[in-house]
Design goal:
Elements (H helix, E strand, L loop, with lengths): L13 H11 L10 H11 L6 H14 L1 H16 L47 E7 L13 E2 L3 E9 L28 E9 L10 E6 L28 E6 L5 E11 L2 E13 L9 E7 L15 E5 L6 E8 L2 E9 H17 L2 E3 L5 E3 L9 H22 L3 H10 L5 E6 L24 E2 L1 H9 L16 E2 L5 H4 L1 E3 L13 E2 L8 E5 L5 H14 L5 E4 L2 H9 L5 E6 L1 E2 L12 E4 L3 E3 L1 H10 L5 H4 L2 E6 L11 H7 L6 E5 L5 H16 L4 H14 L8 E4 L5 E2 L4
Parallel strand pairs: 2-8, 10-15, 15-18, 16-17, 19-29, 20-21, 20-22, 22-26, 26-27
Antiparallel strand pairs: 1-3, 3-6, 4-5, 4-7, 7-8, 8-9, 10-11, 11-12, 13-14, 23-24, 24-25, 27-28
Helix pairs in contact: 1-3, 2-3, 3-4, 5-6, 10-15, 12-14, 15-16
Length: 716
């Protein structure tokens, strides 16, 4: 085997730089990493005949072929990002890890939630509480050590509680403060909140049940025989209560790695999710390695979660393991279903959907010119709209079938999401694949004939631009084409990214007492006349706060660091990355005369700024890439993460090529609705409906990575 280094040249791409770091770390010797994967990666590091793109392809091919390689890379990334120690190092004397920064509640800004006048601050928790998770033997209730292999076919129990960080918790070294401060305290006469715990697994045998835990305003959680009803007082006595929730599970009969997911929810909002991996053998032994990590946190240091409306369903998207991603759908009354998709399936489906979306409004010629299929008013004829919706509905029906392969799964989804709903999409940390949720179509379609136009649905679109359901939904039969069959027209779909430590879910954007201002980062290589007219309209919208025009990277950097406005608007080209210097799966934003902005630029600007004015502004960012050519399903996700360095409250954008004139109208209408006081969810829905009234379906191409309840402060 080759020596670790030194290497003759600089890394050709980020994947090579990461692999070199992994090769030099203690994780390289982890037993989970297959010998063949180790040999292939080692040989790859010493190949000089590959360019950046080929190196990246080979690197990810190993990840797809060897599950242990993916697991070790995830552990390495977690250690590098969260400050975990490598194996063999001494644990800290404090059970809270050095890599976990837990600011006191008083040190976290409360700029995201409007203060409640009736909140009794004296009764708020004065210390962080943590989700604790352990595996125990059923009879003794003693903790199964993390280095113990679980016996195939044997029953164990999960022990769950929320309180002081327990030394024996599997989460002790990756702890995240539990988001308890934002709970509404609506239960038991205002003395606490009922939370729901759900455990799902493809490997372990688990009871299909939702478990309730009561979290008081201070102190640890408990379980009791009281029914978990909102506002209902407890009838139990302290002697009836248990400190821990115990959930039995049985290890699989076959030895090997086994995984489960644990989710904690409040009124349909997913607060935290945990991934656990254990090794199963024929017998218990001492060479195990049970690990668990918090992979999603809705918000840190909550205050008044009751300000959020209940969510009808939460969809947890697990990061791919061995090339397969897990999607769990939970309703308020418990799990609905779990689905499994490969990255290849997602990428293929997304490519087909984007091709159809683009083909509905433009033709891209070989000379890079666009032939616009939409008139000067960004409209089409009713007949064209029917054809467009039919093409999109067939793709949406394929997406729905991709998610729910069996009839019971499809019926369960339709039952829970038949009426207009608010759906929360929870993307796991380090997950890098998105999914076109708005384009899902759940009315049954076959391929045998034409689709029948739902006249009632179209009439409702023209009657009310806030409509979210068809008045004759019960009459929808096979091959019915109705706008409200699309999730994006029927539901509010929010995708808030996982909150890093110390960061809250933002519900308000902008600095208190200031009128919203707009910072525009624009390209100078697009149609000048259309751009000038667009800026004139935007200046009219932002009459009080003003528009700050940036057409160079240095002026944009200063505007972002100085937190010039509550709104940030990227208007112009989206470019493919340079494989020699830029990550291959990221769209690059263009500003001015061909200057390129990458997520790394944004991160560096934020890290080098001496103060953090953006913390109190929490801007909303709109990426209106009117010539974006990227087709990777992860294209915007890195920008969503990068803007969090500037405390962005949310990011809205499109990942397909949009003709400039239509991009102008959608951008203008979106900012107009936000300035009128509407939240992002209703504003984006109204933009979609306005375009649909013009027989234009391209409003479905825009996605909000934030809370649907996000609003601007101080709007007129």
């Amino acid at each position: 085997m080759h020596e670790t280094g030194p290497y003759p040249d600089a890394p050709r791409c980020p994947s090579e730089a990461e692999l070199r770091e992994l090769r030099a770390s203690e994780f390289w010797r982890r037993s989970e990493l297959e010998d063949e994967a180790r040999r292939k990666w080692d040989a790859l590091l010493h190949r000089t005949d590959l360019g950046a793109e080929d190196f990246t392809d080979e690197f990810f091919w190993v990840l797809g072929e060897y599950p242990g390689a993916l697991l070790v890379l995830e552990l390495f990334r977690a250690a590098r990002q969260d400050g975990l120690r490598g194996p063999g190092t001494q644990a800290p004397p404090d059970s809270r890890p050095d890599g976990v920064t837990v600011p006191p509640l008083g040190d976290i800004s409360v700029g995201d939630i409007e203060p409640a006048t009736d909140q009794d601050s004296a009764t708020e928790p004065d210390a962080d509480r943590f989700l604790n998770l352990s595996i125990v033997w059923p009879l003794s209730r003693q903790t199964v050590p993390a280095d113990r292999v679980l016996a195939a076919g044997r029953t164990y129990e999960l022990r769950v509680d929320i309180g002081r960080l327990a030394d024996q918790s599997l989460l002790a070294r990756q702890a995240r403060p539990f988001p308890d401060g934002m709970l509404g305290h609506t239960d038991d006469g205002g003395r606490g909140d009922w939370l729901e715990v759900t455990v799902l697994s493809d490997d372990f045998d688990l009871p299909a049940a939702r478990h309730s835990v009561f979290l008081p305003r201070t102190g640890p959680s408990w379980v009791c025989p009281c029914p978990p009803r909102e506002h209902a007082p407890h009838t139990c006595e302290p002697v009836h209560r248990g400190e821990h929730l115990y959930i039995p599970f049985t290890a699989p009969d076959e030895p090997g790695p086994a995984r489960l997911r644990l989710l904690v929810s409040y009124r349909g909002n997913q607060l935290q999710s945990v991934s656990l991996t254990a090794r199963v053998g024929a017998h218990e032994s001492l060479d195990g390695d049970t690990t668990a990590s918090v992979d999603y946190t809705l918000t840190t240091g909550y205050a008044q979660l009751a300000a959020l409306p209940a969510r009808t369903a939460a969809v947890r998207v697990g990061r791919p393991v061995g090339g397969t991603m897990t999607i769990d759908v939970l309703a308020q009354d418990g799990p609905v279903s779990s689905f499994w998709l490969t990255e290849h399936q997602v990428r293929g489906a997304l490519q087909r959907v984007r091709d159809v979306l683009f083909g509905l409004h433009a033709v891209h010629h070989e000379d890079d010119s666009l032939e616009n299929l939409i008139d000067e008013n960004n409209a089409k004829t009713p007949d064209a709209a029917h054809d467009d919706l039919a093409k999109l509905a067939h793709q949406g029906a394929e997406l729905f079938l991709l998610l729910a392969r069996s009839r019971p799964e499809r019926e369960a989804l339709r039952r829970v999401l038949r009426a207009p709903a608010a759906i929360q999409i929870c993307q796991q940390e380090l997950g890098n694949v998105t999914f076109p949720w708005s384009l899902l179509y759940d009315i049954p379609l076959d391929n045998q004939g034409d689709l029948g136009r739902c006249a009632a649905g179209w009439a409702e679109v023209h009657r009310d631009d806030t409509a979210r359901s068809c008045p004759e939904e019960s009459r929808h039969g096979l091959n019915t084409l109705c706008p409200f069959g699309f999730w994006g027209y029927r539901h509010f779909i929010e995708q808030p990214p996982s909150a890093p430590p110390g960061r809250r879910l933002q519900l308000w954007a902008g600095r208190d007492g200031e009128a919203p201002a707009l910072t525009v980062a624009r390209s100078l290589t697009i149609d000048q006349e259309l751009m000038d007219h667009h800026l004139t309209v935007l200046r009219g919208h932002f009459l009080h706060g003003g528009v700050h025009d940036c057409n160079r990277s240095d002026t944009l950097r200063k505007a972002l660091i100085d937190a010039t406005g509550a709104c940030i608007y990227f208007y112009g080209h989206g470019r493919r990355p340079d494989p020699l210097v830029e990550p291959p799966s990221t769209t690059v934003l263009e500003i001015g005369q061909g200057e390129r902005i990458t997520p790394r630029d944004l991160a560096a600007w934020a890290d080098s700024s001496p103060w953090r004015q953006s913390d109190e502004v929490a801007p909303v960012v709109f990426l209106n890439g009117c010539h974006t050519l990227d087709t990777d399903p992860a294209s915007w996700l890195t920008f969503v993460e990068a803007f969090s360095a500037f405390s962005a409250a949310g990011v809205v954008g499109t990942e397909i090529m949009i003709e400039q004139g239509m991009a102008n109208e959608i951008g203008e209408r979106f900012w107009e609705r936000l300035l009128a006081g509407e939240a992002v969810g209703p504003a984006l829905h109204k933009v979609r409906m306005t375009m649909l009234r013009k027989n234009n379906v391209l409003g479905l191409a825009y996605t909000a990575y934030c809370s649907a309840e996000l609003r601007l402060r101080n709007v007129s």
